[in-house]
Amino acid sequence: MHNWVMGKKHCYILLFLLAIANTSFAYFDFSVNCRKAHQYLMNLRLTEAQQIIDVEKRSNPSNIIPYYLENYKDFITILVSQDKTTFERLLEKRSKAIDMIEHDDASSPYYNYCLADVYFQWAVARLIFMKDLGDMIDGIKAGMEIKKAYELLASNQTKFPAFTPNLKLLGLMRAMIDAVPDSYKSIVKTLAFDGSFEQGISELVQLTDKTLTDKNYDYLKSEALFILTFVEINLQGDKQKAMFLKKYFTHPIFVEEFKTNATLLYAKARYEMFFGKNDDAIETLENFPRGKEYAYFGFVDFLTGKVKLNRLDKDAVIYFLNYTVNYKGAHYIKSAYQHIAWFYLLNNDVAKYTDYSKKAIKFGSALSETDKQAEYEAKKNSSPNIRLLKARLLCDGGYYQLAVKVLDGNDQALQLKTNRDSLEYLYRMARIYHEWDKVDNAMPYYENVLRKGSNEVWYFATNAALQLGLIYESRKQNNAARLYYKRCLSLNPKEYKNSLHTKAKAGLKRIGG
C-alpha cells in the first residue's frame, strides 16, 4: 500500500512537472532584445539584428518571437535586394518559422498574428519574382498564402478585437482590394476579402495612432507609417485626401525617428516627392544611411536619381548608374536607363542618349507600367522634345514656375514638330497648373487634350479624363465626375492603361457608379 501511494505521489509530481513544462515550453514575448532587433530591422541593419536575435534565442530558448523576427529579416533581405538566388535560398527556411510558431501557444493573439505575417511576407516575396500572370504556380501559391494570412487575421480580430497589431495587415489587404488591376481581379475574388479601401485606411490610421500612445505597440510605429504612406500615395494617389499624413511626418516622435530609421526616411522621401517638395526629398535621400552595416536598398539610389534629375542636377546620373550596377532585381531597370538617356539628352550628348535608350530596350523586364513605358518610348526611334522633357521633370519636382517658363513661346520656338508634341504641350500645361493648385487654369488644357487626343494611342487624353473626374469629384459634382470617369474608361491607350482605368473605376465606386 505504501509503495502504491508513493508511486501515485511520484506520478502526480511527474504530471505536475510535465504540466509546468508544457505551459512554459513556448511563448510569445516581445522582450527588450526582440524590440531592439525589430528596430535594427527597420533601420536595415540586418546583421546586427540577427546578432541580437541569436542572443535572445540563447537567453530565452522558449521565446518564439526571435524566429518570427528571423523570418522578417529574411523577407526584408529579399525585399531590398530583389535577388532571385537569395529568394530561393531563404525560401528553404520558411517552413521552420511556421513550424516554430504552430507549436506555440495557440491561445495567444500573437499566434495567428505571427503566422499571418509569415504567410503574407512570403506571398509578397513570390509576387516580386512573378514575370506575369503566366507564372501560375507561384501565383497560386502566393494567392493561397494571402488567403491564409487574411483568414488567420480575421479570426484573430474576432477572438481578440482589442489586439491592435491585427490592423496592420488587415488594413493593408482591405485597402488593396479596390486598387488591384483588372487583370488580377479574378484572383482577388477567390480570396474572399471583405472591406474596402476606406476601411483599410481607417484601420491603418487607428494602428498608427495607437503606436504613438501605447507603449505595448510602439515598436510597430515604423511599419505602420510606412504602410499607411504606401497605401495613400501608391494606391490612392490623391493629394487632397493624403493631406492628413502631414500630422505624422511632423509629429515629434517620428521626427526623432527620422534621424536613424531607414524605413521611415524612405517613406518620408516618398511623401515629400508626392507633395512636390523635391528639395526636401533630396535632403532626406542624401541623409539616407549608407555603409557596410546597412543592407543595400537599390530603390533609394533610383529615387535619388529621380529627384536630382527633376532639379536638373549634374550628378543625377551617378545614382541611376549605381542602381543599374548594384541592384540585382528586374524592376525599374528600363526606367533607370531611360532616365540616364534623358540626362545625356538634356546635356547635349546625343550619342550617349542613343546608347542608353538601346539599353532601356535590351535590359530589365517590362513588369511595371513604368518599365513598359520606358521600353515603349525607347523603341520610337525619335528623341523627346527637350523643352517638353525639361518641363515634365521640373513639374515632377514641384518647380512649377520654372516649368511654365520653359514652355513659354510659340510652336516654332518650342520646336513642336509632331502631333504628339503639340498634344503633350497642352497636357504638360494642364499638369503643371493642376499640381500647382491652379485648377481653374488646368481645366481648359485638360479639355483641349481630351478633345484633340481621344483618338490617339498616347495616354494624355485618358489621364486628362481621369483628372477632370477627380476634380469634379472633389467639388462634389458627381454627375460630371461620373461622365469623365466613364470617358476615361472608354479610351484605350497603349501607355498606363491599367493604372488609369483602375483609378477611374475606383472613382466610380466612390461616387456610386
How far is the first residue's CA from the last residue's CA? 84 Å
Helix content: over 70%
What Rg is obtained from the alpha carbons, in whole angstroms? Answer: 26 Å
Give the ordered list of helices and strands: HHHHHHHHHHHHHHHHHHHHHHHHHHHHH
Proportion in β-strands: under 5%
- Poorly predicted ranges: 1-6, 11-25
Number of strands: 0
**Largest sheet composition:** none
Q: What general outline do the C-alpha atoms trace?
A: globular
The assigned structural class equals mainly alpha
Q: Tell me the number of helical segments per DSSP (H or I, 4 or more residues long).
A: 29
User: What is CATH's topology name of the domain at 22-253?
Assistant: Serine Threonine Protein Phosphatase 5, Tetratricopeptide repeat
Give structural notes:
By secondary structure, the protein is mainly α. Among the domains are: 22-253, Alpha Horseshoe (Serine Threonine Protein Phosphatase 5, Tetratricopeptide repeat), CATH 1.25.40; 413-513, Tetratricopeptide repeat domain (Serine Threonine Protein Phosphatase 5, Tetratricopeptide repeat, Alpha Horseshoe). The protein contains 29 helices and no strands. The protein has helices spanning 2-24, 32-42, 46-59, 65-81, 84-91, 94-102, 109-128, 136-159, 166-177, 182-191, 197-213, 221-236, 246-249, 252-257, 262-274, 278-286, 298-310, 316-326, 333-346, 350-362, 369-378, 386-396, 400-406, 411-414, 419-435, 439-453, 460-474, 478-490, 497-510. The protein starts with a helix and ends with a helix. The model is unreliable at 1-6 and 11-25 (pLDDT under 50).
